[in-house]
Design goal:
The protein has 428 residues and is of the alpha/beta class. The chain is built from 17 helices and 14 strands. It folds into two domains: 2-337, 3-Layer(aba) Sandwich (Rossmann fold), CATH 3.40.50; 347-418, Arc Repressor Mutant, subunit A (Orthogonal Bundle), CATH 1.10.10. Helices cover 50% and strands 13% of the residues. Strands 4-5-8-3-9 form a five-stranded parallel beta sheet, sandwiched between helices. Strands 12-14-13 form a three-stranded antiparallel beta sheet. The longest helix has 23 residues, at 77-99. The radius of gyration is 24 Å and the shape is globular.
């Protein structure tokens, strides 16, 4: 199973955020991608809600939410977040001391953490010659027991609705007989920890279809190495990098709408976005997890740019963001694949032979036109992972080529076609 773990592309460690992760890496046993996800989430909370992307009519705050999925002790989830907090506390210890929320007990608790000052509080401030700021309160939620949050959300509480609104950057309102709490355009980033088994067992169809889970980056993490107790981080280099990040964060807090470099916008429209569309998961459950892949990729790209002191998204930002989101997709697939029932050898061989025969018949019938990936997945009833489908196809006499253009621009889809004889018992 270890060899099947997803591995992020090196470009995820691009820019200043990546340099900080690489500087922290020698001093922790945590997975570097877990450290990266933790820093991204914490930094996105710090920069506030002023910087945003405008996608159509939708305003997207530059918020990143992550869930670190790893086995107890071996996943080193806490170590990953601990390493990230070491750097973030260098950035602004007062902020993270005051604005970090531990756990998500309820929807009311979330709203209360970022609620506007009450009328009485505002009046008292005015009488004292002060004026309290209303709206835009920031919070960094670290939830080491995210399994309990999933359980609460699936039970019909207000928590899931408040979480979805918070990711969207909308207002939060919690009304009871005693009081009405309102948070105007709060800026909340959420970082959760959970084991694979908990995640699979607590998944709710209602939350999946409602869009709660696709607001998170799902990052599989595991222990990266064993360290002796005397290994230390290059403190001088780390402080220099964090000092630079602090300067860039102050710039980011003044940024309003993000823009694209001309070359990056063309690259996104003509190449990367069509490529992302082609990467649609074949499994319907995976498809629900990735429904926000376009805006999420752009949020990540914007965060890379802001961390580097820019309000303009460049091509490298897009590629790094795409690599992070691709890793998240692979992490989801890996986590859910582990949940599949383990068949005995005879049953597994029998099913594989059945699926091979179904693929053979479908490909022979398709002829030179071939079949795109989605159609091949449907042939086997969307019952196998992408890697298993690759294994099935590798056992057959097939080849790939560009298919017909969809007419929507971008590259034509890749199709698989039969190159064996008509009886399907070997190559021509």
């Amino acid at each position: 199973m270890n060899s099947e773990r997803p591995i992020p592309a090196p470009i995820v460690y691009n820019g200043l955020l990546g340099e900080i992760v690489k500087t922290l890496e020698p001093g922790t046993e945590a997975d570097p991608v877990g450290v990266l996800g933790s820093i991204m989430t914490g930094f996105s909370a710090y920069i506030g809600n002023k910087a945003h992307l405008r996608l159509g009519y939708d305003r997207h705050p530059i918020l990143v939410w992550a869930i670190l999925i790893g086995r107890t002790s071996k996943g080193k989830k806490g170590s990953a977040t601990g390493a990230a907090m070491y750097a973030l506390n260098m950035l602004d210890k007062q902020f993270y001391d005051n604005e970090t929320v531990r756990g998500l007990a309820s929807g009311e608790a979330l709203v209360r953490a970022v609620a506007d000052p009450s009328y009485d509080e505002q009046q008292e401030a005015l009488e004292a010659g002060e004026e309290l700021e209303v709206g835009g309160r920031m919070a960094f939620v670290i939830d080491p027991e995210y399994g309990m949050t999933m359980l609460r959300s699936s039970g019909g509480s207000t928590l899931s609705g408040h979480l979805r609104n918070a990711w969207d950057g909308g207002n939060l309102v919690n009304a009871t007989k005693k009081e009405t709490l309102k948070a105007t355009t709060p800026h909340v980033a959420v970082l959760g920890h959970i084991t694979p088994r908990e995640f699979r067992s607590r998944m709710s169809d209602r939350e999946l279809s409602g869009g709660t889970y696709n607001r998170y980056l799902i990052l599989h993490v595991h222990q990266s190495k064993l360290l002796p107790p005397t290994v230390k981080t290059d403190e001088k280099k780390l402080r220099r990098l964090v000092d630079k990040l602090r300067v860039n964060a102050e710039k980011a807090r003044q940024v309003e709408e993000m823009s694209f470099a001309a070359e990056a916008e063309k690259y996104w429209n003509e190449y990367l976005r069509p490529q992302i569309q082609e990467e649609d998961p074949e499994d319907e459950v995976l498809e629900q997890f990735t429904a926000r892949r376009d805006p999420y990729t752009l949020r990540l790209a914007a965060l890379y740019a802001l961390a580097d002191g820019r309000d303009v998204i460049e091509r490298d930002d897009l590629n790094a963001a795409h690599a992070v989101y691709t890793y998240s997709m692979k992490s989801i697939e890996f986590t859910l694949q582990e949940a599949a029932p383990r068949l005995d050898g005879v049953t597994r061989r029998g099913k594989s032979e059945e699926w091979q025969e179904a693929l053979r018949s479908a490909l022979i019938a398709a002829g030179d036109e071939g079949l795109p990936r989605k159609e091949l997945a449907r042939v086997v009833g969307n019952n196998v992972s992408a890697s298993h489908l690759d294994q099935l196809l590798a056992s057959l006499p097939v080849a790939t080529k560009p298919g017909r253009s969809t007419g929507r621009g971008g590259r034509p889809p890749v199709v698989t076609y039969w190159v064996g004889n008509d009886q399907g018992d070997g190559y021509v």
